[in-house]
Structures are given as structure tokens and as C-alpha cells.
Specification:
heterodimer, A: about 120 residues, mainly beta, six-stranded mixed beta sheet, globular, B: about 120 residues, 11 strands, about 50% strand
Chain lengths: ~120, ~120
């Protein structure tokens, strides 16, 4: 069965330090992987996705993520965190072999707190 | 419009009341999704449309939940005889086409509280 795990409920970093938000996945084939961010009382905003090609994907707001097939991971990273990055981050996966089923399978989210 | 638009943004319903939540996807987007997000949780899939066809409704939690997209654009999620456990944010999302892994864009959500 497809699944996504975000092992950390919360990540705390100091402003200016690098940040990593972890995600691992389980799908039967090659996955499509996504990161979304959710600010308080707001909807989900797309950050980046991995479909194929270069394992390092660059996205919005200076975020990037690295696809690692052997470790089945897709960790979100940013070299220098900002206080405004504080939000809830969701990793999601879609199985490209799932036919007409286009739904995403979501992790439970990781709350990122960037301290001034 | 520029993004996915949902209404109402906030709805308080008395238990047993019927509610209807509207989603206006990005113009031209073929695929439309409804998700339910409980407080502190990730989104849970409810249903998926490709144009006007409802291809997957496996996530609808009960027969009190009904979704439609009659003209392949605007969609409505209806919840009959609401119960307290229906309290959640209902997220609508759309993507350009069905055949490729296009980005899914979300609306701001409709926050439903059943009292």
C-alpha cells in the first residue's frame, strides 16, 4: 500500500540556519512526490514536485528537495531559514501506476518553527 | 479566476442541518478533488472528478456525503444531516489535466463547524 511518513511532528531551527524537513514514502513503482506548505488558517500552497530527472528539485521561496530512491526519501531543505517560513509542511506521493486514481497520499505534516 | 475559490469560507451548522460547499476551480482545469482535513491532520481524499465524471468517490465517509460537478466546472460538496464528526476543513483542488502529473492547486478551504 502507498504511504508517506513524516517522522518529525515538529522541527525547530534558528533563523539563518539550514533546515531539513524529512519525508519517506512507500509506493510500488516510481513515485511522483510533492511538498506543500500550509500557513495558519490558509489552504495548501504548492512548493515543489519530483516527477523524473534530476534528483535535486528546486521550488518556491528558496526551498529544494532531494529525491533518494535507495532510501525512499524526499527531504525538504532550505539553506537559510526565515521566521516567515514557520508553517505546517506536508509531503505527498502519487503512484503513477494507479490508473485513473489521481489522488495524493499525504503525510501527517511537520510543524516548522523558525526562531528569531 | 486566478486560483481555486471556495465558499463559504466559514460555516457553522447545527447538528442535523444540511450544508453545501462550493468550489470554483481554476479556469480550464480538468481534474477536481475534494479533501477533508481535520485539525492537526493531513488532508484525506474524498472524491475526484475528471470534467463532469466522478471517477473516484472511495473517500466519501458515508452516504450523507455527495459531490457533483454537472458541467465540468464548478463543484458542490453536500453533506446531509451533519454530525459533529463532520467538523473539519474541506479543501477543493484542481489540476490542468488528468493524463500527466500536473501540480494540484488548492483553495483556501471551507471551515465547517457542526454544533
Amino acid at each position: 500500500a502507498q504511504s508517506v511518513a513524516q517522522p518529525e511532528d515538529q522541527v525547530n531551527v534558528a533563523e539563518g540556519n539550514p533546515l531539513t524537513v524529512k519525508c519517506t514514502y512507500s509506493v510500488s513503482g516510481n513515485p511522483y512526490l510533492f511538498w506543500y506548505v500550509q500557513y495558519p488558517n490558509r489552504g495548501l500552497q504548492f512548493l515543489l514536485k519530483y516527477i523524473t530527472g534530476d534528483n535535486l528539485v528546486k521550488g518556491s521561496y528558496g526551498f529544494e528537495a532531494e529525491f533518494n530512491k535507495s532510501q525512499t526519501s524526499f527531504h525538504l531543505k532550505k539553506p537559510s531559514a526565515l521566521v516567515s517560513d514557520s508553517a505546517l509542511y506536508f509531503c505527498a506521493v502519487r503512484d503513477p501506476n494507479a490508473g485513473n486514481n489521481r489522488k495524493l497520499i499525504w503525510g501527517l505534516g511537520t510543524s516548522l518553527a523558525v526562531n528569531p | 479566476g486566478a486560483g481555486v475559490s471556495q465558499s463559504p469560507r466559514y460555516k457553522v451548522a447545527k447538528r442535523g442541518q444540511d450544508v453545501a460547499l462550493r468550489c470554483d476551480p481554476i479556469s480550464g482545469h480538468v481534474s477536481l478533488f475534494w479533501y477533508q482535513q481535520a485539525l492537526g491532520q493531513g488532508p484525506e481524499f474524498l472524491t475526484y472528478f475528471q470534467n463532469e465524471a466522478q471517477l473516484d468517490k472511495s473517500g466519501l465517509p458515508s452516504d450523507r456525503f455527495f459531490a457533483e460537478r454537472p458541467e465540468g466546472s464548478v463543484s458542490t460538496l453536500k453533506i446531509q444531516r451533519t454530525q459533529q464528526e463532520d467538523s473539519a476543513v474541506y479543501l477543493c483542488a484542481s489540476s490542468l489535466s488528468a493524463g500527466t502529473p500536473n501540480t494540484i492547486y488548492f483553495g483556501e478551504g471551507s471551515w465547517l463547524t457542526v454544533v
